[in-house]
Protein: Cytochrome C
Amino acid sequence: MMNNAVFSWRNVWFRRSVVALAGLTLLWMLVGFVWLPSVSVGFASEGVWASICRAAGVPAAWSPQSPDAVSPPVSTHVVLERTMAAPAPSRSVGRGATLALNCTMCHGSRGMSGSEAPNLAGQYREVIIKQLRDYQEGQRASTIMQALARNLKAQDIEDLAAYYASLPRPHRVETAPAQVPSPALVRVGAPLRNVAPCISCHGGVDQKLGAPWLEGMPRAYLVAQLNNFRSGARANDSHAQMRNMARAMTPGEIAEVAAFYAGDDAH
Ligand code: HEC
Ligand code: HEC
Structure:
């Protein structure tokens, strides 16, 4: 009888503890399912309900999607393949050289740009193929390049890439008798900020398929591209690898690495 009275709703202490327990449970659910997931990236894009489902361990595909939900934007449609980098009999350097007459105005007569357009001389084949196809499909924005790329056939792109890859590659101009020390970001990156060393992908130590040759590029072009990755205005890098790194870099670091790769002495 005593027990019944204790667990009775009429007992004011019982009522209070039930209310307190319910309140605490609700609070921790808000923290665990709403607040904590909201701190992680992608929360806003998927909505509160999807995040609650995810926090509770529901596989992403189960969470309800509104009928008009759009699939996440793709950064590029180009699938990089080793064969793109290899010379192939189906690619003609000679034909590429003829087609490249349309490009000399900005990219220079031998692929060395005198303006702020990127150099193409010695650029990796697969980079030229990928970038031209990204312009063609609107995955990389540039009024000039999108208009030009639209008129190129697949074979034209292959031949242009073969031609430009065959030209001598610019090296960073060494300005002082002693070698210019490379910035720490270039050599070792910034592990705490998830910035990998540039040389692990862009040549020097290793080249990752699709990572462009940077040495000798115009400084303004390098700064512009890093800022575009940083702001997301350029988003054609697969897995956001450059966007993530550029976001972690300060404007000062961007200026420093750009000056280094451009070979300018002002750094
Ligand atoms: C009127 C000037 C102009 C002409 C002509 C031109 N380009 Fe470009 N090109 C540019 C500029 C500027 C960029 C950089 C645009 C950007 O910010 O994405 C560029 C970028 C590129 C890139 C990307 C390079 C990289 O490192 O990411 C490739 C590849 C390229 N052009 C190839 C060509 C080819 C091939 C032609 C000839 C069919 C051509 N371009 C003609 C101005 C030009
Ligand atoms: C994990 C590999 C990786 C690392 C590390 C890396 N990059 Fe990149 N970077 C890429 C790839 C891949 C691309 C080409 C993206 C695309 O497909 O458009 C790229 C593109 C670029 C471009 C655009 C060049 C052009 O001509 O279009 C610049 C500039 C650049 N990276 C600078 C840097 C700098 C500076 C660092 C070091 C702080 C760095 N990257 C580190 C993989 C890397």
